[in-house]
Give the backbone structure.
Amino acid sequence: MRKTKVISTIASISFAAMSFSSIAADEKKVVLDGAELGAPSTCNVENLVKPKEGWIVGGDNELAKALKLKPDSENGMDVYEVCAACHLDTGWGREDGTFPQLAGQHRRVLIKQLADIRAKNRDNLTMYPFTLERAIGGPQSVSDVTAYIEEKLLMNPNNGVGAGDDLEHGKQLFKKNCVKCHCENGQGYAEYFYPRLQAQHYKYMLRQFEWIRDGKRRNANPDMVKQIKEFTERDMKAVIDYASRLKPPEKDVAPVGWVAPGAED
């Protein structure tokens, strides 16, 4: 069972939501309403759009510091107690999109998002207090907790999806636009800080997509902002519904009855 020390942290700051985009890879084929979709597990890096240097930032260079440190996933499990209050012991978040799934996300992506929020490069008023050093520690803690999430938490086999009534349109939009950063099957690319999209909750991704499109998420990749600027409501819902249905490889998915480390009774 999680240690009770997280209770004192929660009592001192408002309930929060970590706002990371998330994603996963696939080694098989994805089935969308009965139709099989080719789902390559590899990503042709040569075809990816390289991020602009100014986008990869972190307050006081905390991003670079955390990336260089050797992570301790055991300490990360303790730090994660704060995160579990919203994202659950499993790291699965909530289907209603209030809190995203963290399980399965690239560690480099998690570090960047934490560093951006801590440095106020990304606006998230509810999560911000939980990211501060007084709540989770300094760069070493950031390194540790992200390692724990990446290494120890298996993904939700039943994430939230959309209506499923416009998937072909979503598929075409995904192939035309999203693969340039998130790869052919939405597995993302950690080296460029491109997040995984697979198995993320539809409602969470929809909200983030809308904020990025409308310029409300300040740390968004400027290439993505420009690319999706003209997306209609139909486009947005269709492509996000499609992306939410892409499945991670079986080895990354939690089996029935799985319990997160440290959450046992």
In short: The CA atoms of residues 128 and 149 lie 19 Å apart. DSSP finds eleven helices and two strands in the chain. Strands lie at 30-32, 35-37.
